[in-house]
Amino acid sequence: xxLRQKAEEIKLSKSGSVEVLRARLIxxxxxxxxxxxxxxxxxxxxxxxxxxLKIFGIKSSGSHKERRQRLWLHLNFDSRRMTIERLAELDRxxxxxxxxxxxxxxxxxxxxxxxxxxxxxTSQFNAWGRIKxxxxxxxxxxxxxxxNDISELNEQIISVEIPNLNLRQDVxxxxxxxxxxxxxxDSLLMGFENSDFTTQGDILTIQARIEDLDRMISTIIRSHExxxxxxxxxxxxxxxxxxxxxxxxxxxxxKLVLVATNIAEIKGAKMKSSTEIDLSDSGTIxxxxxxxxxxxxxxAERKKS
Length: 305
Prior knowledge:
Strands 1-2 form a two-stranded parallel sheet. The protein has helices spanning 2-9, 18-30, 38-43, 46-56, 64-76, 84-87, 92-101, 110-123, 150-161, 178-189, 197-207, 210-223, 230-242, 250-266, 282-304, and strands at residues 227-228, 270-271. By secondary structure, it is an all-alpha fold.
């Protein structure tokens, strides 16, 4: 309410979330001498744009291009509304404009443009639109820059989520080429071209995380002695669900498993069918013997009757 009152006093729009209002007030009250238009952002030196990002209280590390993308997003969108799922509702013209301002290639159909913007939103996840937790509410001077890269955070999450993880370093895993990952990216959408916006949004979210998918598959293969099968696919789905991937749609889950299996095969995993039995498990052997014993008893009873 106090932010809205301040905005009203200087005749600024008071719509939007707390962070949107806060960014607007900083732009027009504190950084009045700084050109924060798209052209102005493009002309900012690397060091200056980092200082501006710190004033807004958002992540200030990264390449020059990443900083420009982050600042433009922070000044023009609400991170709670501009999500990957929302991209499915935008037409090609709006996506084309977003690609232009995010310094992305402008060629391709609507789906390709959506994928490019989704990739930026994923790489900039939680880096714009929300104040850093380390930033004091009473001032800027002690801003710290401690956020880990998303890729490092993902690896930490994987190691925490797999109990008793025993990564076999002697398991040889081939590296999936960029072409293979691009094929996996494209194949995710196959069959969903005419789906509803929600389903397309789910697929776009997963498409934008194809590199995370690749890392998860490698980790699972190492922890399962180089094998890939139904058990490993189920583990992948559990990990992805815990990390917030939209997998409520059964068809989306099936597509993810299919693509993941293809990637695992490219990596050289030993493929297991759902009918294979791990005979090293004494419990499994006991269960099989128990079933056979029951069948023998049933046949014996039928013969007597």
